[in-house]
């Protein structure tokens, strides 16, 4: 039996031969070193409460794999070294051991550049267009970019009355100025005049479009607390997405990191600490979990460069056509396509679009800007990936030209250079912050139809609850002229003069005194300048409204007074 050594029995060491040593090459963390995470910052380890050891430091034994604990071999003690991770967590690596280079390269995002956005909103009242709704407040996220500017979501500052920003760790809110709002891409650009706000704040750097399975870290101020929040995940999908706020389709990233209310406008960082997108919406459904969406850097840079180039946001151009897939071989044969030709068939063309002068229905669109279009409407994107060809169109700016190749019925291949422009729908998806237009005569309230109007009248399920005639125009109708609008009788303010017409609600006005109604301004002018004995309105569903002209005009003033309406028409109609 071996002799017993004198002196105090040494404390057990986590790296001694008696300790469990992992056989993997992953870094090991000494149990005596504790890392605490608060607001995703690296906090210095607390001082050790154990009594310091006297004398020379004891050598530490490290066991090779499948070795005997009593082999007696000694190695150099491993010293913990902190490596910053993307979410701010300190990870100890071991000197003298192999460290994964990918771990060393991952850095902490510039979270001090992430700000909290406070906004007071005052939405228009589309049902009573002469007034606004009660104001309400919201909070969201944003982040600082170069040029003393801040990016956030457009829906975060929609119908804003006042916008304030608060930096991380500060108790001061700074009044912000809204420079531009891109409704289609759901991005807004802000700035702050106070120089104090920009002190100690570094701008976020943008990174490239990430690949599938790349790690992302979403930073912001979501519900559930007041301090900054960090969630992480990976890029799970890259494709053309439907932007709910703008009712458009642009490139987007799908991630599995949690995006909650308040995260809107917050940046998504990659492993290098560069911003690769802006959190803006998530999918809420009982059958899905953790599906969030991020606006990628190509869309962000398009918005920024558009603003810098034009001094204002002009929008994303689109190709004003509706097209059909050509996947059926008999359909391709009937169109005169050769076996090596691919493309999509043009069904309809927007009469107000510039390309309506060159393209024709039943043309086969073969390529856009030199990129061949497949029979399903996709184009090569990256290695092993394809994407809808509308992505190529969205990379352009309003007023840019593009080369298109089409196949006509007689197997003739034609090349055109078309000018791209933004498209206004017959039923606009948004009013770009402007109050709704209205005109009142004899208690009849006339206004124009838009998606916000339908949402106000029929709720979030307006696609099912609104009248079929209006939905058909929303989904399928093109404008025949740039200033065409859908004018409806929103409601009838009850008075003696309009007895029998009280139940007319949200019905389109087709003609006034046998003249077509082109838009609300033309209707107001025709009524104001009418010298006929009667005012006759032809409505949808073959309804007719007839009022005596002099009586209708004289009764309008009393009706406005009764309902506390300041004017019979909105300001934009007086111009």
Helix content: 10-25%
- What is the CATH topology descriptor of the largest domain? Thrombin, subunit H
| CATH hierarchy class name of the largest domain | Mainly Beta
Query: Which descriptor suits the 3D outline?
Result: globular
**Number of contiguous helices:** 9
Helix- and strand-based class? alpha+beta
Q: What oligomeric arrangement do these chains adopt? A: single chain
Spans of at least 5 consecutive residues with low confidence: 1-105
Strand content: 25-35%
CATH architecture of the largest domain: Beta Barrel
Pfam families: PDZ_3, Trypsin_2
Region (Disordered): 1-84
Domain Protease Do-like PDZ: 427-572
Family: Belongs to the peptidase S1C family.
Map the helices and strands.
Elements lengths: L35 E3 L2 E3 L36 E5 L5 E5 L6 H5 L8 E8 L14 E10 L3 E4 L7 E7 L6 E10 L4 E6 L22 E6 L8 E15 L4 E8 L11 E3 L5 E8 L9 E5 H14 L10 E4 L4 H6 L9 E6 L14 E5 L2 E2 L5 E3 L5 E3 L1 H5 L6 E7 L5 E7 L18 E4 L2 E5 L2 H8 L3 H4 L2 H9 L10 E6 L14 E6 L2 E2 L3 H9 L5 E6 L4 E5 H14 L13
